[in-house]
Amino acid sequence: xxxxxxxxxxxxxxxxxxxxAQSHVRHHRxxxxxxxxxxxxxxxxPVASLANRQAGNxxxxxxxxxxxxxxxxxxxxxxxxxxxxPVAPGGTGTNGVPPLNAISSGMPAGxxxxxxxxxxxxxxxxxxxxxxxxxxxxxxxxxxxxxxTGVYIPPLSPTVNGTCAGDPAAAAxxxxxxxxxxxxxxxxxxxTTCPTPLDWGVSFDDGPSxxxxxxxxxxxxxxxxxxxxxxxxxxxxxxxxxxxxxxxxNEISVHTWSHHPLTSLTNEQIVAELGWTRKVIxxxxxxxPTTMRPPYGDIDDRVRAISLAMGMxxxxxxxxxxxxxxxxxxxxxxxxxxxGAASYNAFEAILGNATSLSTxxxxxxxDLFEVTVDLAIGYTLNAALAHDPPFSLKPIGNCSNIxxxxxxxxxxxxxxxxxxNNTVVTTTNTTTSSRxxxxxxxxxxxxxxxxxxxxxxxxxxxxxxxxxxxGYVVVxxxx
Length: 479
Ligand SMILES: [Zn+2]
What we know:
Blueprint: H1 7-10, H2 22-30, H3 32-40, H4 50-54, H5 139-145, H6 168-172, H7 174-177, E1 199-205, H8 212-222, E2 227-230, H9 232-235, H10 239-247, E3 251-254, H11 267-285, E4 291-292, H12 301-309, E5 313-314, E6 319-320, E7 324-325, H13 330-334, H14 340-351, E8 361-366, H15 370-386, E9 392-394, H16 396-399, H17 428-431, H18 446-452, E10 463-469, E11 472-477
Helix pairs in contact: 5-11, 8-15, 11-12
Protein name: Chitin deacetylase
C-alpha cells in the first residue's frame, strides 16, 4: 500500500516486536501524527489499536500505561487493566447480566469485550517450565537467516522511516540504492509490468479483510482472477478468506507480516517479516509463494537481495515517466484524502496512457476497506472490462507468462524462477530481462547483486545463461 500514514490503521495484530523489530517503534512514533491526522479526516480504523497509535506506542502494543501483570500471569504483559464488568442490554441482574429468566437463545447481544492485555513476545507464562511466548526473532528466524549465508546483501543502512522526506541523505542516493520509493528505480529482477500490451495485471493488497469476500463475489461473477498480496497478521485472522482466494484460482503472494516499510528495517527484521508471512500462508494453503510485494513499494537493493535470497521475487506496480505509478489511489479515499470521484478521475488520467505503452501494466488496488472494494467492483474493474480497446485482466504471474506452478515453492519445477542470488555475470546486459527498460544503473543493480554474489556459496560453479523463460532472459547456474 502506498500510504505510509495508514500503516497502523491497517495492522493491529501481531506486529513484530522485540529485539528483532526495534525500529518498528521508531518508525511508528515518527508517523504517529500522520496517523492521527488521517483518522481525524475520516479514515476507517477497523482495528482496535487506534488508541495505541494515539499514545505513540508501536502497533500491536497497548497504549495503556504499564501496570502490574495480572494475577497468575507471568512477566511480559505490556499492559493490564481490570476487566470491565460487562453490561448486557437490559442487564440489571447480578454482575451486570440480565435476570436469569431473561437469559435465552436469541436474547439481545452485548458488545464483545477486547482482550485487556497484550502480552509481549517472549513473555514468561505462568506454567512452570513452559517456554516463553513465541517471539519474532525466535530460533526459527535465526534459521531463516541462514538463507542469507553466502549471499551478497548490499550493506545499506536502514532508512529512517521508508520515506524520502524522513531520510534526505538516503533519498539523495536513491538511484544508487535502487530505492524505488524516492526514485521509481526498478531492477531487472523486479516484476513491474505485464509484457503483453493491453494486459492488465490485477492486484489487491493488504487483505484478507472483512470486505475481501465482497470483491471475490464480484470477481467470480465476471470470471476475473487477481494476485492477492496478503498480510501475514491478517491471514491468521481470516484464513478461510485466503483459502477462498486460492481455491478460486487467484494467485497468492507475500506482503509482509505487519506492513512496515522494509527499507527501514534491519536485515533480521526483514527476514522475520517475510519468513513469518510465507510460513502462515504455507500453513493455511500448503504452498509457499515465490513472489512478494514490499509495502508502499518501499524496496531498495538490500531488501531485494534479502527477498531473492529467501526465494521471493519482488513485484511492484507499473510506473512510467509519462503517467507515473499505475496506482488507483483507492487508499487515498480510505484515508480521507480524496473522494471517490477524485480518485477515480486521477486513475483514469493515468490509464489514458496505457494504450500507448509497449507493454501491459500492473495496477495497485486494495481489498482492506469497503470503500476500496467498492471503487474496484463498481468503477475501476468495471471500467477496465468495458474499455475500448479491451484490456485483458489477469493475475500478475499469469500475465507474465509464468506458469502458476512456479508461483509456489512446492509446485515450482523451474530452476530459474525465482531468480537466484547465487548467479554471476560480467555485464549488465547479460542479466537484462525483456522488461528491464526502466531499470537503474547505479551501484547495487541487479547485475551487481549477482556479480557480488561471486563470493557466495556457489561461486565455484560454472555460470551460464539458462534461457528464455516466459519472456525473461534470466541467468542462472546449472547445478
Ligand atoms: Zn500494502
